[in-house]
Design a protein that fits this description.
Elements: H1 10-13, H2 19-28, E1 30-34, H3 40-50, E2 54-58, H4 83-94, E3 99-103, H5 112-116, E4 121-124, H6 129-141, E5 146-152, E6 155-161, H7 170-173, H8 186-189, H9 194-211, E7 223-228, E8 233-238
Parallel strand pairs: 1-2, 1-4, 2-3, 4-5
Antiparallel strand pairs: 5-6, 6-7, 7-8
Helix pairs in contact: 3-9
The protein binds zinc ion (ZN).
Amino acid sequence: MNNINYSRYEQHIELPKVGLEGQEKIHSARVLIVGSGGLGNPVALYLTASGIGKIGIIDADRVEESNLQRQILFSNEDVTHTKVSVAKSKLDLMASNQKIVAYPYFLDKKNAASIIGDYDLVIDATDNHIARLIINKVCLTQKKPWIYGSVYHFEGQVMTFNNEEDSPCFTCVFSDINEDSTLPTCKSAGILSPVPGIVGCMQANEALKIILNLNSGNKHMHELCLIDFLNNDFKKINILKNTLCNTCGMNEA
Ligand SMILES: [Zn+2]
């Protein structure tokens, strides 16, 4: 049993469906955040504040001035420094008996299985499909949940993949995406500053719900959430597992 600081986590401990037992689950959880940018920053801040026991952050990029418009962990003096080292130093100041691990390189086919193997849950805070395809495949093999998030202009998308029987995987949803697919990055596409913040907070919220086992019976586990922040329009699309899916369909045999 962990030593839970009651006063620090009072608002969780008082919360129905969380309580002391829930806070202990949060403190025992290990979450990997892939990407330390507009999505990864709010995810890391909220998961650290919530008391997650071990948080890994993987990203090879360095802080650029143009990141500061939305990447809220970084300040002027951090420009040119590696994102994960700056993130770790700032999150360590917030941490309470928690471990923050910085991986200053990109997740790839070679390192993904061993890194993800050290965590219970993965959050996709990347801006590219290649990383998502790798996360999808490894999490499917290791039967781990992961949370997809993406942003574009004034829009966002979030979906949880729990990799349980009959649940869809990323390529069930985006069957036309492959390693050659390219996406415009924020740098080239443009993004309103708070949009990745809201989507990242939704991802952190989904992560905590999985850790606290608050999702059982929730049908949104199989839904893609599409958000239009210009009109405050939230849409959910029910996704079925595709038995012909290139990634998870083979498991049907
Ligand atoms: Zn699939």
